Amino acid sequence: GESVGLHLPTLSVQEGDNSIINCAYSNSASDYFIWYKQESGKGPQFIIDIRSNMDKRQGQRVTVLLNKTVKHLSLQIAATQPGDSAVYFCAEMGFKTIFGAGTRLFVKA
Amino acid sequence: DVKVTQSSRYLVKRTGEKVFLECVQDMDHENMFWYRQDPGLGLRLIYFSYDVKMKEKGDIPEGYSVSREKKERFSLILESASTNQTSMYLCASRPPDRGFYQPQHFGDGTRLSIL
């Protein structure tokens, strides 16, 4: 069946460095992908999305890359800040939405 | 900005009780969802609704029911709470999919403990 998963459950980065969080998906027919950020005690917050007709999309300090050939999605955070510490998870939207389990990002000062 | 409000942040109930979790959204979205979130399992869909008085089962509907009497409100009901329903419950809403998908907007969750 379809699945969306993350390669690493935790990621620790130094403040100011770039962070890369990965996601694999298995449904090649999926055409819309979302990254969410979930801070402790809060609900998931939309960060950025990308449709399957694109390879890259940039936001403010965040970039999402989509590689349809290997069914891989990544979230890049530039100049990571302490406020970026959270759980990040991807979502794959087709007939139903499938969420990854999440990666916890720790930012070291 | 979309606002999805869940009535309780923390709730403690006893086994066998009937539990109501309430969710209200202010963006006139047709689609509303209830998920539970457990460590290592991600978000699992319990029920969703695409219109008033309409409901569809998600992946794990057993032990739950829902009510959508008004467009802005979607309630999750635990008919007879059990300890394995201790979890974080998340409500979400989304505009209708008119030719393209749009993201879901989430509330801050209700952490429910069943003793």
Topology record:
The complex is a heterodimer of chains A (109) and B (115).
Chain A: E1 4-5, E2 10-14, E3 19-25, E4 32-38, E5 45-51, E6 56-58, E7 62-67, E8 72-77, E9 86-93, E10 97-99, E11 103-108
Parallel strand pairs in A: 2-11
Antiparallel strand pairs in A: 1-3, 3-8, 4-5, 4-9, 6-7, 7-8, 9-10, 9-11
Chain B: E1 4-6, E2 10-13, E3 19-21, E4 23-25, E5 31-38, E6 42-49, E7 56-57, E8 64-70, E9 73-78, E10 87-94, E11 105-106, E12 110-114
Parallel strand pairs in B: 2-12
Antiparallel strand pairs in B: 1-4, 3-9, 5-6, 5-10, 6-7, 8-9, 10-11, 10-12
Question: How would you describe what is shown here?
Answer:
The complex is a heterodimer of chains A (109) and B (115). In chain A, 0% of the residues lie in helices and 55% in strands. Chain A is mostly beta strands and 109 residues long. Chain A has one domain (4-108): Immunoglobulin-like (Sandwich), CATH 2.60.40.10. In chain A, a hairpin with a 3-residue loop joins β6 (56-58) and β7 (62-67). The model of chain A has no long low-confidence stretch (mean pLDDT 89). Chain B is 0% helix and 51% strand. In chain B, β8 (64-70) and β9 form a beta hairpin. The mean pLDDT of chain B is 93. Chain B is built from no helices and 12 strands. With 115 residues, chain B is mainly β. The relative contact order of chain B is 0.33. Chain B has one domain (4-96, 104-114): Immunoglobulin-like, CATH 2.60.40.
